[in-house]
Amino acid sequence: MRRALVMLAAAVPDAEPDSLADWPLGRRDTELLAFRASLFGPELEAIAQCPGCGMEVVLAFTAADLAAPPHAQSAAPLTVSLERYAATLRPVTSRDLLALDNANPEQPDSVSPAETTLTARCITAVTEAGAPVDPGTLPPEVLATLGEELGRADPAAATELSVQCPGCGQGWLAPFHIASYLWSELHHWARRLLMDVHTLARAYGWSERDILALPPLRRQAYLELVVT
Ligand SMILES: [Zn+2]
Q1: What is the three-class DSSP state of 154?
Q2: What is the pLDDT of residues 110-152, one digit of tens each?
Q3: What is the pLDDT of residue 110?
Q4: Can you name the residues that pair with 93 across neighbouring β-strands?
């Protein structure tokens, strides 16, 4: 969770870092997708396992395949009427997820208690038969329905890819999480850069600073000379 905010602060350097935690998750993920495209280009690749036959399917796609329609990204409060309840909700933010992390440092196996806590946090007002009630006292099934409405109101926070298995033909929707994807991509990129510096420093006796100052194509050319 904190990783997503670290990357978001790099993506939006002009923003007050603390304010980024209050962005709706869909806005956060849309920004991270654009940031990722500016660093590594528009093509993404992931692996999903077919729920039908277990085959590992390689997915090649672009951010456009994931993007939610612009009208879907709304920070406006959501109002939901449900039997005798009427609730006003705000979008889920990183701050909410951080609060849950702190409350449950050991991630529970079942996410449902955390999800209802999350939904209750996002209810800004709720009435039962016209009288205000505490969101924490709502029946679980009411919280569950309100949680689904929250998800529908911010679809960019739960991006999915439509996949068809080339082995058995089964189609399914695979969830895609840009924050963990980009974090692991940056991790591998940094590790590779470190190895490249190590290889060139050992071969030529250059300093780290000199190696990093080389244009990437020149650095690559020297690497190929060393390795071959
Ligand atoms: Zn399959």
Answers
A1: coil
A2: 445 678 889 999 999 999 999 999 998 999 899 999 999 988 8
A3: 44
A4: 24
- Structure confidence at residue 159 (pLDDT): 85
- Phi, psi for 183 (deg, rounded to 5): -60, -45
**pLDDT tens-digit series, residues 182-194:** 999 999 999 999 9
- Which of 168, 227, 174 has the alpha carbon at shortest distance from 48? 174
Q: Which amino acid is at 106?
A: E
As given in the structure block, the two tokens for residue 82 are 């449900």
pLDDT digits (tens, 9 = 90+) for 36-47: 999 999 899 999
| Nearest one of 156, 135, 151 to 88, comparing CA atoms | 135
Q: Which residue has the tokens 């449950």?
A: 104
Dihedral of CA 198/200/203/204: which sign? negative
Contact 190, 60 (CB under 8 A): no
- Beta carbons within 10 angstroms of residue 178's beta carbon: 24
Residue 45's DSSP bridge partners are 60
Classify residue 219 by its DSSP letter: H
DSSP state for residue 46 in the 8-state scheme: E
Domain map (residue ranges) of the chain:
1-73+156-176, 75-153, 190-227
Dist. CA 49 → ligand 1 center (Å): 8
Tell me the CA–centroid distance for residue 174 and ligand 1, in Å: 13
What residues contact 197, with CB distance under 8 A and at least 6 apart? 208, 211, 212
Q: How close is the Cα of 160 to the center of ligand 1, in Å?
A: 18
Q: What's the gap in Å between 166 CA and the centre of ligand 1?
A: 7
